[in-house]
């Protein structure tokens, strides 16, 4: 047989293999020594970035607790309610002033004087209104009616002609029954603008003479 077997009288010996039979052994380089200490600033910033990225991913994320948010908005609502109450008191005071002013004004002359104080009409306009309409009843101006007398129309047209602001002031505060400015403008369209005395002026004079008699 060609198979090699260990003989019974063989004695083990230590020997070295020849160079051509030796297996080449590659030695690994030792690892490089590194400092394992981390920069604390870098570590902190990375943690913060991680936290921010993971807490702001969702649109429904809220940094404050619901209790804090409730307290915050309750304070805002309380401040707004205080502002509303202040405005209500201011409106109330203004309404009282207007009502007191309306009580003091008991005739047309006092109305014209009030317009002069507020610089809504000049002195010449005030004198003209007093001369022509001083006897006009204030109750007639305040009374709500669908038809207006010629004298009332004449006063309305005159006041609106000289000062639309004064007319609007009287209409909003003192005489709410005065016709709307669009109505007054419509009256202007039907007035005869030819030279001389107008029919409306003569009618107003006639009505005033009849009342005097």
From TrEMBL:
* Coiled coil region boundaries: 70-97
* Keywords in alphabetical order: Coiled coil
Pinpoint the THAP9-like helix-turn-helix domain residues. 115-187
Record's protein name: THAP domain-containing protein 9
Q: What is the lineage of its organism?
A: Eukaryota, Metazoa, Ecdysozoa, Arthropoda, Chelicerata
């Amino acid at each position: 047989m060609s198979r090699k077997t260990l003989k019974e009288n063989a004695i083990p010996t230590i020997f070295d293999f020849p160079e051509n039979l030796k297996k080449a052994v590659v030695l690994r380089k030792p690892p490089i020594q590194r400092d394992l200490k981390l920069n604390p600033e870098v570590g902190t910033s990375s943690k913060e970035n991680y936290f921010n990225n993971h807490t702001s991913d969702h649109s429904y994320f809220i940094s404050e607790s619901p209790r804090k948010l409730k307290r915050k908005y309750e304070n805002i609502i309380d401040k707004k309610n205080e502002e509303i109450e202040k405005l209500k008191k201011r409106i109330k005071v203004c309404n009282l002033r207007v009502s007191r002013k309306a009580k003091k004004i008991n005739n047309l002359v006092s109305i014209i004087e009030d317009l002069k104080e507020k610089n809504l009409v000049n002195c010449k306009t005030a004198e003209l209104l007093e001369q022509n309409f001083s006897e006009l009843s204030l109750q007639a101006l305040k009374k709500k009616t669908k038809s207006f007398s010629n004298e009332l129309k004449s006063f309305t047209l005159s006041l609106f002609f000289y000062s639309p602001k004064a007319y609007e002031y009287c209409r909003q505060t003192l005489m709410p029954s005065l016709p709307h400015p669009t109505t007054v403008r419509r009256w202007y369209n039907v007035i005869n603008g030819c030279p001389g005395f107008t029919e409306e002026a003569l009618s107003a004079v006639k009505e005033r003479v009849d009342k005097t008699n």
